[in-house]
Write a structure and sequence with these properties.
Elements: H1 3-23, H2 27-47, H3 51-76, H4 88-109, H5 130-137, H6 142-163
Helix pairs in contact: 1-2, 2-3, 4-6
Length: 171
């Protein structure tokens, strides 16, 4: 099987598992599908000769972040009665966060495709090394890197606000 066919299969499985994260009604199953998505993304990194990113993705996202998500889900103890109602402000916030994510994706993919030319992968031996990664992140991809850090901060603030409960007054 060719490398291109393997990447198409892995890409399709990644998209399918990411869709299951969104479409699943049970939050624990969504987290499990997200872990599966991270595994597929790590395997795509390995195909692109970015071993450092694959290992960091597995350790940080599939390990630490998923444990944090599961902890927050168990802490919130979501059920039908305790689930907050959706509001117009929540919808506006979701649109802004989605637009920001779309901006990050467009900025990151801006130089990938050129009009009139097909995609030709560049073969670089040291592409997955830490030194090359650092140079690329803090030069060419500085804006998407910083915007994604803002998204992470917004997600942490949202988790803290969800976990904050009103104190009950005892008479």
């Amino acid at each position: 099987m060719s490398l291109q066919m393997i990447s198409v299969i892995l890409g399709s499985l990644t998209i399918a598992s990411a869709l299951m994260v969104v479409l699943s009604k049970h939050p624990i199953r969504s987290v499990i599908y997200l872990v599966i998505t991270f595994f597929f993304i790590s395997s795509m990194y390995i195909l692109m000769n970015a071993q450092f990113l694959a290992i960091v993705n597995m350790i940080v996202y599939a390990g630490a972040i998923m444990v944090l998500f599961l902890f927050v889900l168990m802490l919130l103890n979501l059920n039908k009665e305790a689930e907050p109602e959706t509001s117009r402000m929540g919808a506006i916030t979701a649109v802004i966060a989605g637009g920001t994510l779309f901006l990050v994706m467009i900025t990151a993919l801006r130089d990938t495709f050129q009009y009139g030319k097909g995609y030709t992968p560049v073969k670089v031996q040291d592409a997955g090394l830490v030194e090359q990664l650092g140079k690329m992140l803090f030069s060419k991809y500085l804006v998407p890197f910083e915007i994604s850090s803002i998204l992470f901060i917004a997600a942490m603030v949202g988790a803290v606000l969800l976990a904050k409960r009103e104190k009950q007054v005892i008479d």
